[in-house]
TrEMBL record:
It comes from Serendipita indica (strain DSM 11827). It comes from the Eukaryota. This is RNA helicase. Coiled coil: none annotated. Residues 251-437 form the Helicase C-terminal domain. PROSITE patterns: DEAH_ATP_HELICASE (PS00690), HELICASE_ATP_BIND_1 (PS51192), HELICASE_CTER (PS51194). One of its GO terms (biological process) is spliceosomal complex disassembly. Residues 59-225 form the Helicase ATP-binding domain. The lineage of its organism: Eukaryota, Fungi, Dikarya, Basidiomycota, Agaricomycotina.
Length: 766
DNA sequence: GAGCACTGC
């Protein structure tokens, strides 16, 4: 019998020599099966990757240190090769541990896992697998190299806080600074202190590695860095002489210039959103056709839009070949892709030689003062500009036209895009962290600490939802809420819903709220689309309409065209079904009853609407003034019902799912509610003693007075008893958490102290 | 009376 290729190897003391020999052998050291011809062919290609030449340096650093930072430009091969290098060092197949490599996106986790399984000559899902939401392609006990989304690893950490099943964790694309990667960095830094056997590699594409080196290093010493060059073609960058007042117009002009004056090669234009892109495509097409008809030296041009809400079939058009010349000897055709940021990271288009970069993108911003996330067209960062330019050099040398001056580039653009953690509502993240056992959220070791006010807002919300007690400890309810991959308001609804006998319905609504907009509205069929929507609408509220749509969809599942005929997105409805199944499984695991009332009609809807109040009592608006003028409760923001809203009247009180800031402040997905429910089900938030003066308070006061008046009339007493007093008993959801640490918000303002600030959600006996 | 940049659990 031949000697095992890894005979005598000591984990983490292997050398590049030994590994290379093993790779060149005839036996797969991990499966002991003979290596195939395909393996050997792929191996030759692997050896040409830049990272392959750095194997020795990699092992020198990796064997000696716990946390390594690695920079590898596009095309270096780091994502596929480094995890394999680690496998030869960790020998995870012998120790029963795994190597994890995280990715910000699902498709990347899937496709890289497939590639690496081929490279290692194993079947995908066996030794090499992947794990993403809705799909676990791994085999316990067999899989030792697992590609996964960063969010998935964070979820795992909640049940296994030391991530004991892993010997090495690789955070890939760390420069993207997703929320999950940022939290994982903080956790891993901490876990490493107690787990000297765990190794961490932080991989990034930009040269901002120093930040990670400092973060993971000690006061005296930076974490070690391995730097590997990329393999791309040079891209020549041009700037405008003067700032461009209208970047869309300038982008169109630049495309037409390239088309007339530059060599063949496709063009990629970055714009900010759907409307802008469709508009630009139309204009480019008209002008290019005119040019071609006037000038015989100008070839045909096709213009393709690209953004995420485009149906997949139309997205595929970006891969179509450019148009053929009009005559056999005529000028060649050219393809123009006008895209959002999706083409910056998520999608790669081959054949792009020219990039037009106006320097803007839509970015999420969070304003903790008014608790609103919104999208804002903002200047991109230098890192983002470099990424865009790089898209021109994937197949051959290219050119990038930046529609701003070089001076503005140097002076005005930030180095890096703001990490997501600084631009998000953190309610969900804070609940996850508390569940992970992190109690001092302000002092958690973030790579970039969020504003204390953002954390405070999150704690406040979680406290009002009774997920955290007044000392910031996780309650039993909060612990359950953290099990759901949902916003805390939504998990609260699910857990509360059996008390109102409508958990099946709430489960549907929550699922529909968790997927992209289901309503289609083609520009030339708006009336038809609106009419179709009206037929499915329920006048009491958009939440109920969503439920009705899902139910109709399921009833008509046999009819493939049902969604299309009703101007609904079949893709979104399928996603909702998928999410619903996942959430239902979690509810079953947590023993949350799945119930429905047998009676239907308005009374039934009342229960659903009441349940909605239990989660969304902080997202309520009151009509003030005529027609469509509302003010949000407590914050007193002036808002209007979004035109997509299906309510047939303007009710005095509404609950909303979303605050959108576009041309105006709108509230979207709205359901009518009764003020009595607010007082009854969310008494602590609607404690009028704590309420800011204003019309909302007066209106609530009138309701309260009326209730009290009725009570006085009813029992003939003179003293006015507090109508809400009898509701002070805590429900079983509000059990105490098991922690006894100091308040999480030490040193920062906490929400106004009252008695226990729980929302009370016992339905009134009727 | 108008919009979903992009991800992720």
């Amino acid at each position: 019998m031949a000697t095992h290729p890894m005979h005598g190897w000591v984990p983490r003391q292997v050398t590049a020599d030994k590994v290379t020999t093993a790779m060149d052998g005839d036996i797969n050291p991990f499966t002991k099966k003979p290596l195939s011809a395909t393996y050997k062919k792929i191996l030759e290609a692997r050896k040409k990757l830049p990272v392959y030449g750095y194997m020795e340096e990699f092992y020198r650093i990796f064997n000696e240190t716990q946390i390594t930072v690695m920079v590898g430009e596009t095309g270096s091969g780091k994502t596929t090769q480094i995890p394999q290098f680690v496998a030869y060092s960790d020998l995870p197949h012998l120790k029963g541990k795994m190597i994890a490599c995280t990715q910000p996106r699902r498709v990347a986790a899937m496709s890289v896992a497939k590639r690496v399984a081929d490279e290692m000559d194993v079947e995908l899902g066996k030794e090499v697998g992947y794990s993403i939401r809705f799909e676990d392609m791994t085999e316990p006990g067999t899989t030792f190299l697992k590609y996964m989304t960063d969010g998935m690893l964070l979820r795992e950490a909640m049940n296994d806080p030391s991530l004991a099943r892993y010997s090495t964790i690789i955070l890939d694309e760390a420069h993207e600074r997703t929320l999950a990667t940022d939290i994982l960095m903080g956790l891993l830094k901490d876990i490493c202190k107690n787990r000297p056997d765990l190794k961490v590699i932080v991989m990034s594409a930009t040269l901002d590695a120093q930040k990670f080196q400092r973060y993971f290093g000690t006061e005296k010493k930076l974490a070690p860095l391995l730097k590997v060059p990329g393999r791309t073609h040079p891209v020549e960058v041009f700037y405008t002489q003067e700032p461009e007042p209208d970047y869309v117009e300038a982008a169109i002009r630049t495309v037409l210039y390239i088309h007339q004056a530059e060599d063949p090669g496709d063009i990629l234009v970055f714009l900010t959103g759907e409307e802008e892109i469709e508009d630009a495509c139309r204009k480019i097409k008209i002008e290019a056709d005119e040019l071609a008809s006037q000038d015989p030296h100008v070839g045909p041009l096709m213009c393709v839009p690209l953004y995420s809400s485009l149906p997949p079939q139309q997205q595929q058009r970006i891969f179509d070949p450019p148009p053929k010349p009009r005559r056999p000897d005529g000028p060649p055709g050219r393809k123009v892709v006008v895209s959002t940021n999706i083409a910056e990271t998520s999608l790669t288009i081959d054949g792009i030689v020219y990039v037009v970069d106006p320097g803007f993108s839509k970015q999420k911003v969070y304003n903790p003062r008014i608790r609103v996330e919104s999208l804002l067209v903002s200047p991109i960062s230098k890192a983002s500009a470099a990424q865009r330019a790089g898209r021109a050099g994937r197949t051959r040398p290219g050119k990038c036209f930046r529609l701003y001056t070089e001076k503005d580039y140097i002076k005005e653009l930030e180095e890096q895009t703001y990490p997501e953690i600084l631009r998000s509502n953190l309610a969900n993240t804070v609940l996850e962290l508390v569940k992970l056992g992190i109690h001092d959220l302000v002092r958690f070791d973030y790579c970039d600490p969020p504003a204390p006010e953002t954390i405070m807002r999150a704690l406040e919300l979680l406290n009002y939802l009774a997920a955290l007690d007044d000392d910031g400890n996780l309650t039993a309810l909060g612990s359950m809420m953290a099990e759901f991959p949902l916003d805390p308001q939504m998990s609260k609804l699910l857990i509360t819903s059996p008390e109102f006998e409508c958990s099946n319905e709430i489960l549907t609504i929550v699922s529909m709220l968790s997927v992209p907009n289901v309503f289609l509205r083609p520009p030339n069929q708006r009336k038809e689309a609106d009419a179709a929507k009206a037929l499915l609408s329920i006048p009491e509220g958009d939440h109920l309409t969503l439920m009705n749509i899902y139910n109709s969809y399921k009833q008509n599942e046999h009819d493939k065209n049902w969604a299309w005929n009703n101007y609904l997105s079949a893709r979104a409805l399928m996603q909702a079904d998928n999410v619903r199944n996942q959430i239902q499984r979690i509810m079953e695991r947590l023993d949350i009853d799945l119930t429905s009332r047998t009676v239907t009609g308005p009374r039934f809807y009342d229960n659903i609407r009441k349940t909605l109040v239990c989660g969304f009592f902080m997202q309520v608006a009151h009509k003030e003034g005529e027609r469509n003028a509302y003010k949000t409760v407590k914050d007193n923001q002036a808002v209007s019902l979004h035109p997509s809203c299906g309510l047939d009247t303007n009710p005095e009180w509404v609950l909303f799912n979303e605050f959108v800031l576009t041309s105006k402040s709108f509230i979207r997905t709205v359901t009518a509610i009764k003020p009595e429910w607010l007082l009854e089900l969310a008494g602590n938030y609607y404690d009028l003693k704590q309420f800011p003066a204003g019309e909302t308070k007066s209106a609530l006061q009138r309701v309260l007075n009326k209730q009290l008046g009725r009570q006085i009339q009813g029992n003939g007493e003179s003293g006015a008893p507090d109508a809400r007093k009898k509701k002070k008993q805590k429900t079983d959801h509000q059990a105490q958490g098991g922690y006894s640490t100091p308040p999480a918000v030490q040193g920062y303002a906490t929400p106004p102290a009252g008695t226990a600030r729980y929302s009370q959600h016992r339905p009134q006996a009727s």
